[in-house]
Amino acid sequence: MTGSETPSPERIDRNWAELLQELRVTQTGVQILTGFLLTIPFSARFESLDEMQRTVYLCVLSGSMLATALLVAPVVYHRVLFRQRQRVWLVAAGNRSAKAGMVALAATVSGVTWLVFDVVVGRTAGLLALGVASVAFVVLWWRVPLVLRRR
């Protein structure tokens, strides 16, 4: 498809359906993660976190909220624009929002991994776990698809 070619309505509908199916998977995960993170301050052990751990906790909570907003946004776009003949825009904007949401989700999960390892084992283990989680997300979510796309 060239830059000036208009995609067919069938293709746009198929792209929209595929995007919504992908979002169903990620939305469930990010909503569970966010719900879990919201309960942590109410646990007895939260008071024992040091200043850095509390800061990271607030960052990962914020990241989880951002990921939730970005991954749910395409559904909201659809509801607001229902029957407004904006399917091409919905697919493009939904795709951008989903990609940004997945970046936020990867950063959040990596941060949560750091926090858990830091609390349970120590700072060095936390930093190592953060590095491993970050590399895993970059490789699996970005590098592998790019390598396959080039083939």
Can you describe this structure in just a few lines?
With 151 residues, the protein is mostly helical.
Structure write-up:
This protein has 4 helices and no strands. It has 151 residues and is an all-alpha fold. It has helices spanning 9-39, 51-80, 87-120, 123-150. The mean pLDDT is 93. The chain has one domain.
| Helicity level | over 70%
**Oligomerization category of the chains in this entry:** single chain
The helix tally amounts to: 4
Q: Rg, please?
A: 19 Å
Arithmetic mean pLDDT: 93
Number of domains in the coordinates? Answer: 1
Strand content is under 5%
Order of helices and strands: HHHH
Question: What's the arrangement of secondary structure elements?
Answer:
Elements: H1 9-39, H2 51-80, H3 87-120, H4 123-150
Helix pairs in contact: 1-2, 1-3, 2-3, 3-4
Keywords:
about 80% helix, mainly alpha, about 150 residues
